[in-house]
Predict the structure.
Amino acid sequence: MQEVKSPCISVCTYDDHKICIGCRRTEYEIINWDDFTNDEKSAVINDVNQRRAKEQDYYGGFPV
């Protein structure tokens, strides 16, 4: 099984909820990424996608 890649895009700044504005992972998820199993990493990626889907883009619309 291939290793799940980190969603990091090197924009490492947290919002008020301790979620990275670049990759949308929580502080906990970032700190523990290397210790997670592939299943746990896949679950984090799913959570990241859900977080992104709930946000408005820069121009005020929602992502497709």
Notes: Residues 4 and 37 are 9 Å apart (CA to CA).
